[in-house]
Amino acid sequence: MNGKPIELTDLIYLKKGFLSDKECQIIIDDFENSPAEAAQERCPHAFTGENILSTFTVKSPTFRKEAFNLVHKSIEKIICEYQDYLDTFEAFHVMRRLSLLFPHKYRIMKYEKGAWIHPHTDHDPCVYGSCTINLSDEYTGGEFSFWGGKHKIKLGKGDIMIWPADYFWVHEVEEIQSGTRYSVNCFIRSTPQSLPETVKYNVPCPDAFKPKPVEVPWESQTYI
């Protein structure tokens, strides 16, 4: 980075057109065809602390089916790209590669006209990153906004974005004025949470930081 100062916005990694129209539709169809009841969520408002009910609805993709696998592989790929991108700054600890290994769960979100989400963060114990995939573009409004509107991003269909998760990363989705916005969101963790431990991202890491095998003392070994 040639000594250039690092801005907060530099840590937002956006990849345009990461998913094709067909791939986006596969995920949308999973939401619309799922027999599960669409749910709402609550989270605290970043500036008041009030626990507010969401105006969007959410379903989880069908476990291990096409949409689920597509989301998992896409987020795994963007995490690896993000880590390589962060390496170019020559400024961040290599152990961060062990912090983005598991999804908390996958959520397909549907924002209809009038829906929005208030300023909040995705911070939680063991959560170090957040990722969103935009699945549609036939809507107005719905800009992705950081820090009370100081930095706004208009996501197109198939765009994917990843950024750190802590109390500094306040963000919101502005109100949908017309149409419907579909997206996927995932909080990225260092440990498993809602999904099995086998749902893990393959993120390259230097050998020096990989877990070492446990050595069993010779006298404790059992032979058959």
Question: What's this, in brief?
Answer:
With 224 residues, the chain is α+β, with helices and mostly antiparallel strands. The chain is built from two helices and 15 strands. Helix content is 16%, strand content 27%.
Describe this structure in words.
It is a single chain. The protein contains 2 helices and 15 strands. The model is unreliable at 220-224 (pLDDT under 50). It is an alpha+beta fold and 224 residues long. The termini are far apart.
Number of helices: 2
Query: Structural class of the helices, strands and pairings?
Result: alpha+beta
Taken in chain order, the helices and strands follow as EHEEEHEEEEEEEEEEE
Low-confidence residue ranges: 220-224
- Give the full name of the CATH homologous superfamily: q2cbj1_9rhob like domain
Largest sheet: 7 strands, antiparallel
Would you tell me the overall average pLDDT? 94
Q: Within the CATH hierarchy, at the fold level, what is the topology?
A: Jelly Rolls
CATH class: Mainly Beta
- Estimate what percentage of residues fall within beta strands: 25-35%
